[in-house]
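*** Backbone structure tokens ***
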Amino acid sequence: MTLAGWLCGLLVAFLGLGAPAVAKDQPPIDDTPRLIGLQHPHWFELSLLDLREDLERVREQGKRALAVYVGMDDCPYCEALFEVNFAEPDIVEYTRRHFNVVGLDVLGSREMTTLEGESMTEREFAVGKGLNFTPAFIFYEPDGTPVFRLRGYHSPYRFRAALEYVADGHYENETFREYLARADPPPRFDPDDLNHQDFFAPKPFALDRSRIPADRPLAVFFEQGECHACDILHTEPLGDEQVLELLDLFEVVQLDMWSEETPVRTPDGRSMTARAWAEDLGLFYAPTLIFFDEAGEEIIRIDSVVRLHRLRSVLEYVLTRGYEDYPTYQRWRMEQGG
């Protein structure tokens, strides 16, 4: 079977863009803060942290791209990447065949040199790239052009899809959202197929904050029917009493990210459907949670697997306006003691 056929089979079976949900969609992750002390896999590049030299090796070896991994110690989601995704031999083989991977610490103090020749610390690099969540990957073509970014943890089948999206150059013709949807076009769902909560505001979705600021931040839940990850969000993190208390301080709306019948007035005052807004935002993962301030500016988004501690922490970050004092969520979180 070809790689493309193998991937298509996985997507059809597991993708969650309308396919029946299965347990493999969401491997168990306990994101309670704890000592983990992760080490990079032995096959990561032994880099001197000069990305120009790392990219030169990519060209010499005929690889498709340089993959810059950004993680951190004591990160349960990084642990899942190493112990679940990289425990699958085909993923490791495919990654090593097409990419050279260089590992960085999102809070690291080591000096590095960027592709532009600038000297800075790993921490400064992560801040400059706006990396709020680990693990994260940034893929660079052999000429140094950044072509794709994957934020947060994604289960093996979606991670494998991201690798093939870059390795086969699909980014040249379509977004990752389009690539996934093409493999398994999402069917139409009745709105009742979504998980409803009492705190979700009813229609109409008049979210415009561009003219008159609101009195509270906004949280938009982009979801879809037949979504195992959405089910877990609603039964686990959204079943926590403290999370519910924090959400009471937000305006909260739920949208079907594929709906062409749901009109929305966006926080910046545009009129479009829920699907068109999701496309405009580049969303490919359900559920995606996007948080906006009182004036309609996006603060942060969670577009990857999320469990209780991360969600609760992000809610606190937004409500305490931590984004005004810290350049990224990660920096704020470390100042709060993890």
